[in-house]
Structures are given as C-alpha cells and as structure tokens.
C-alpha cells in the first residue's frame, strides 16, 4: 500500500517547462516549501487514492499517452517520504524522523560552522500590515510614477556629470567617522526600502509574506524577506517582478536622491541625498545584482532561465562534467538540456565557486586586519576547510564509490598517472633560482660631494679622464672661510706685535703669558681654517676614472651643501649587493653562481659569484636604490628619514673580476638571478604558508 498524502498540501498550476510539458507547484505550508512537479508526477499524484502502484500505472496508460510502470510510482512514493509529504506510518516512524532530524542538524561542529557562515534572525511578521498598506502604495506602481522616476534619474545623472568634481570631492570628504556612521544609516534606509519593495510586490500578486528579518553572511548582516510563496505563481514575469522589486526600489531611491542632490542647497539635506544616492547605487550594482550569492541577482537569473535551485543544478552538472573529463565514466548527466545551456551552467558553477572562495577569504582577511588576528586566521582556516577541503573530500568519496568502474577506464588510468606525476613534481627536489633587485658598482666607488655651500673656481679633470691618487679634481671657494682666514691672520699679526713689544713696559711684561696663550689659540684656529679650506680643493683618494660630472658645473657657479658633483670610479673588481628574505637566503651560500641583468640592458647580462651572506638581518636599508618605492624589490617604510624593511632581509654580496666595456665606468641597478639549492616546490609552498601563519599569529 502507498503512504497517505498530507491533507494540508496545496497544488498550483506551474509554468510550461523547457521541453513543452506542463508543470505544477506543490506547496508544503507547514515549512513554506515548494516543489516543482512534472507531468508524469502530477498524473501519479492525481491517482494516488487508488492506493496500488500497478493500478495507478494502468490508469495512466489508459487515460494518457504516458507509459508508466510499478517502479515509477514507487520512485514518486520515495520522493514524498523523503521530503515528509506523507503521513508517517509504522511503529518505527518516530525513530526514522528522529534519525533524519539528527542528520539534518549534524554534529555540534557542523552546526557551529553553518551558523558562522549563514544564519537568520526573524524580526517581524508583516503580512497583516502589508495587506493594509498594499492599496496605499499602489501609486508607486503606476506608469506616471515610472515616467517621473526615469526623468528624475536622467536629470540627476546629467547634473552629477556636469558637477562631477564636486560629487567626487564630497565622496572623499565623507570618508570620516561621522561620514561612515551616516553611510551606515543610509544603508539601513536603503535596505528597508529594498525589502519593502519585495514584500509589497509579492502582496500585489496575492502571495503571503510571513517573515522579515536579518540574515548574517559570515557575520555580516543583510536584510531578508521570506517571499517563498512566489513559487506558486505560474506567470514567470510575475516572479521576475517580485525578485527584481528590491533592486528596482533601490534604483528608484537613487534616482530621486540624485535629483535632490542636484537641486538642494548645501546643507544636511544635500549630504543625506548624496549618501542615499551612492549607497543605493553601490548596494544595487555590487551586492544585490550579484548572481553568485543567493541575492536578488540569483533569483532573477533563476526566474529568467526558469530553473529553480540553479546553484545546486549547476554544481551537479559541473561535478558530472569533471568526472567525465577525468575518467570517461559514460554516466548520464544529472538532467538533460541543450548543450549550449549545459556548458553555460557548468561555467557558471565554476565562477560561483571561485567567487565565493575569494569573498569569504576576503572577509576573513578584513577580520584579521581590523580585529583579532587569531580570529582572522581561524576564520581563514574554517573557510578553506569548508569551501575547499570539504567539497574535495566529498568528491573523493564519490570517486571511491565508482572505483570498480574507474579501474576499467583507460582515461582514468591516464588521469591517475598524471596525478602521480604532478605529486612527484611537487615533492621531487628541483633546481631553483632566487631573483631580486641588485646594485652593481665598482669596489672603489667614491661620489664627489660639495662640503658646503661654495663657488666653483675651476674644474681640473674632465668627464672620463683618468686621474692619479692625490690629483686635484675640482677647486671650490668659500668666501666665508676666506673672511675668517683674513680675520684670524690679522689677529695673529696683532698678537705677534704685542708679544714682540711686551718688554718695553711693566704692564706688558705682566700680560706676556696671556698674549702667548691667545697667539697659540689663534694659530690653532688658523690651522683649522686652513684644513677646512683644503676640503674645498677636492683630491682623488685613489686612481681611477672621473664620471658623471654634473653638466651644470662651470667656473663661478655656486653649488649647494652635499650636492653631488661627480663620481670617481677606481680601478679593480666590481661587486653587487642584493637583499633576500629568510626563505630565499636559506637556499643561497657563498660560491653560488649568478647572473646580473642591468635595467634597460637585459641583453648585457654578466656572470657573478656569491661572495658572502650576512648572518644577521639588515635593520636599516642603507641604499634607497633597492627600496620598493624607488623601483627596487625590498619592501620598506620610511621612519625618521630611514628606510626600514617590512620583513627580515639579509644582505648578499656578489663579485666579479671584469665587466663588459659598455657597462664599465657606471653603477647599475638591475635584477640578479642566483642559483639556489634544490628544493621540492610543494614543500617550499607548505613551509612558506606555515611560516606566514606562525609569524602573523604572533607565536
């Protein structure tokens, strides 16, 4: 005997399916659930009172063109029992329902994860209030109001375009604490209008709206309205209207707010209109129109394609296509549809998986960045487990269930061999390279700077000239030092005259010792001034070539303090400096070979050898040329005029004996590629991930 159907179930005509057959919608009012029934299922349910599967199949064969059998009727019975659409029967029914309830609830850990990812809080039961107000808001559904709204939108957008600089400046000015609070209030108003748009539109078509409340998506609050009853509407365009009513309500609010911003004078009301405009547009375009989450965009897509449960059906097709591609199982697809539409749904499923992973990981990163780091890491791990590990494990169990068939398929063997090779590549040590920006320069490298503000008297050497050690390069003149020198010489001459005439009077003989001390101090001052003057005659500390003489240098030109005037390149070897992080420097040692590629002349690469690796991390980057803000690879932040690396970096010095002539005579910034120790790529990735978690968790 067949189970007895529940008396509270309701049946409504449904839309015509894609293959042309009629459909019906079965409502479970106790749980506010709806089920789409095809023609054959409807014919079976319409004869359910016969009570015998064979009689039902025979009646259908006599009255219709359908060919049904005993198994088809039992399959419908199993569907009804599984979805609790029949009266429980048997002594073990209570135990069956209890087991099913425990399975639905899952373990405490599964419930915790599910409530973290998504949960709802019903707030109000608005159906009666909506019924009283549905006639009063009918004006918003009149053609005249729509025409006026379109006109307001056009005028508002034109005014915003004409005054775009002011509009953009207002956006920047509102990015304050008070502004963010204003945006929060505007978002609340927008979301209330959004949900009322859904609710009133559903009421206009005779649907019940039992609940409105707040849902939390990864702890982020979003408003929701229960409009499940729209599935009993047979007209697809009516369902589309209800699904899009929230987005339309936000666009209406944005249209009139944009017009208000354009017409209102400066003040509070203009600021409110601006926040409502921007919030409505962003919320509509970024969130509600998104089909990858179960927001309005998803339900609009479902109604447009007339495909309920679009995500689940697309996911099933994507998993089926993956198995066929990997193993060639020859299984039938979960459902039959045109090939173009099937491929569209498969691509949609993959895009949804990628989007959801990026979204939830991004939320975890925000929690990590602005709240508690340990909580952010925990959320990241939870989302990786839930959205990557859990589906992968579920799919692996499906592969295990199909193992007897898998071992007989040639493509499955090839896939297994490919996976083994991929695993071997990830775990097998491979030769590697470490790359970073580097600064190549001569070992003897002396930049010529002006000691202080001075006037150039003469340039002794010219660009590219070969100079010897001790040869004068430039002669500078500082009038202030000359004045000090003349002053001290006059004082010395006066003191010498006083000392020489000190024996003529008793008073002078008594001051002779003091005069000698003053004369000694003046002589010392003269020597110091002379030494300072010597600094303005720039002398080569070693032999080499004079390069990069400032083109503005000529006699009588004034130069500033510490202004770079030229560079002296000494004879001898060349070396390069680079800075590597902890992971990279662990694979580099003295004696490793490397190649240096100068910026702008990559074809002129040269071979170098690692000379030394510093055992301690560099706390302050001595050369800004390798900092990221100046084009280098070392990420730094400036503090008190110093460049501080963001992470631990170690200096690596490389050397070479000779350099190609086209590179000689200059220092170069470029990229160095160093031969590193062999390492398995998979282990490298795992170590880097664990190091990141360890460091960011503060362990």
Task: Produce a short descriptive summary.
The chain has 699 residues and is an alpha+beta fold. It has 22 helices and 22 strands. It has five domains: 10-105, no CATH class; 109-282, no CATH class; 309-428, no CATH class; 445-559, no CATH class; 572-679, Elongation Factor Tu (Ef-tu), domain 3.
How would you describe the overall organization of this protein?
With 699 residues, the chain is α+β, with helices and mostly antiparallel strands. It has five domains: 10-105, no CATH class; 109-282, no CATH class; 309-428, no CATH class; 445-559, no CATH class; 572-679, Beta Barrel (Elongation Factor Tu (Ef-tu), domain 3), CATH 2.40.30. It is built from 22 helices and 22 strands. Strands 7-16-21-18-17-22 form a six-stranded antiparallel β-barrel. The chain has a four-stranded antiparallel β-sheet with strand order 8-15-13-10, with no helix packed on it. Helix 9 packs antiparallel against helix 10 (236-263) and helix 14 (339-370) packs antiparallel against helix 15. The longest helix has 32 residues, at 339-370.
Core attributes:
5 domains, six-stranded antiparallel β-barrel, single chain, alpha+beta, four-stranded antiparallel beta sheet, 699 residues, elongated
């Amino acid at each position: 005997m067949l189970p007895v159907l529940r008396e509270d179930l309701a049946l409504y005509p449904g839309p015509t399916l894609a293959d042309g057959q009629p459909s019906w919608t079965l409502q479970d009012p106790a749980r506010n659930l709806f089920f789409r029934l095809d023609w054959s299922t409807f014919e079976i349910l319409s004869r359910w009172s016969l009570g015998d599967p064979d009689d039902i199949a025979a009646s259908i064969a006599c009255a219709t063109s359908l060919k049904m059998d005993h198994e088809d009727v039992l399959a419908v019975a199993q569907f009804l029992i599984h979805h609790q659409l029949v009266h429980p029967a048997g002594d073990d029914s209570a135990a069956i329902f209890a087991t099913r309830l425990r399975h639905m609830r899952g373990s405490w850990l599964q419930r915790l994860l599910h409530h973290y990812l998504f949960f709802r809080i019903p707030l109000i039961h608005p159906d009666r209030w909506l019924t009283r107000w549905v006639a009063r808001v009918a004006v918003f559904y009149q053609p005249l109001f729509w025409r006026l709204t379109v006109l307001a939108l056009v005028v508002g957008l034109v005014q915003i375009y004409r005054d775009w600089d002011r509009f953009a400046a207002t956006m920047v000015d509102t990015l304050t604490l008070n502004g963010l609070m204003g945006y929060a209030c505007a978002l609340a108003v927008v979301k209330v209008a959004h949900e009322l748009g859904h609710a009133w539109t559903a009421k206009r078509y005779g649907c019940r709206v039992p609940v409105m409340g707040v849902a939390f998506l990864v702890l982020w609050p979003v408003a929701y309205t229960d409009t499940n009853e729209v599935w009993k509407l047979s007209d697809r365009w009516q369902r589309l209207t209800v699904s899009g009513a929230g987005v339309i309500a936000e666009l209406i609010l944005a249209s009139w707010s944009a017009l208000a911003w354009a017409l209102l004078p400066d003040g509070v009301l203009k600021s409110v209109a601006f926040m409502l405009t921007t919030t409505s547009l962003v919320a509509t375009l970024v969130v509600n129109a998104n089909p990858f989450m179960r927001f309005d965009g998803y339900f609009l897509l479902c109604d447009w394609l007339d495909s309920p449960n679009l995500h689940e059906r697309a996911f099933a097709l994507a998993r089926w296509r993956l198995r066929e591609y990997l193993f060639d199982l020859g299984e039938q697809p979960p459902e039959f549809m045109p090939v173009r539409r099937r491929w569209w749904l498969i691509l949609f499923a993959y895009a949804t998986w990628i989007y959801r992973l990026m979204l939830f990981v991004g939320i975890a990163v925000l929690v990590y960045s602005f709240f508690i780091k340990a909580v952010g890491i925990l959320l990241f791990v939870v989302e990786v487990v839930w959205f990557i590990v859990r589906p992968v494990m579920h799919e692996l169990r499906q592969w295990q269930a199909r193992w007897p068939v898998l071992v007989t398929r040639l493509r499955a063997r090839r896939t297994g061999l490919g996976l083994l090779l991929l695993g071997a590549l990830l775990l097998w040590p491979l030769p590697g390279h470490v790359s970073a920006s580097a600064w190549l320069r001569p070992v003897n490298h002396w930049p010529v700077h002006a000691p202080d503000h001075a006037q150039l008297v003469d340039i002794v050497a010219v660009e590219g000239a070969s100079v010897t050690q001790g040869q004068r390069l430039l002669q500078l003149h500082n009038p202030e030092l000359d004045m000090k020198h003349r002053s001290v010489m006059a004082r010395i001459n006066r003191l010498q005259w006083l000392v020489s005439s000190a024996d003529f009077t008793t008073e002078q003989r008594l001051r002779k010792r003091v005069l000698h001390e003053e004369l000694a101090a003046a002589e010392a001052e003269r020597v110091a001034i002379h030494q300072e003057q010597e600094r303005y005659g720039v002398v080569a500390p070693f032999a080499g070539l004079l390069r990069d003489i400032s083109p503005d240098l000529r006699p009588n030109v004034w130069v500033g303090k510490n202004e770079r005037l030229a560079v002296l390149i000494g004879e001898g070897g060349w070396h390069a400096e680079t800075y590597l992080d902890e992971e990279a420097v662990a694979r580099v040692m003295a004696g490793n070979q490397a190649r240096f590629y100068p910026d702008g002349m990559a074809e002129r690469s040269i071979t170098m050898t690692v000379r030394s690796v510093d055992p301690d991390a560099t706390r302050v980057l001595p050369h800004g040329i390798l900092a990221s803000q100046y084009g280098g690879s070392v990420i730094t932040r400036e503090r008190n005029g110093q460049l501080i690396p963001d992470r631990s970096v170690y200096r690596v010095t490389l050397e070479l004996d000779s350099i190609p002539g086209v590179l000689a005579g200059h220092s170069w910034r470029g990229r160095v590629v160093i031969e590193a120790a062999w390492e398995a790529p998979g282990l490298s990735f795992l170590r880097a991930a664990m190091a990141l978690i360890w460091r960011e968790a503060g362990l």
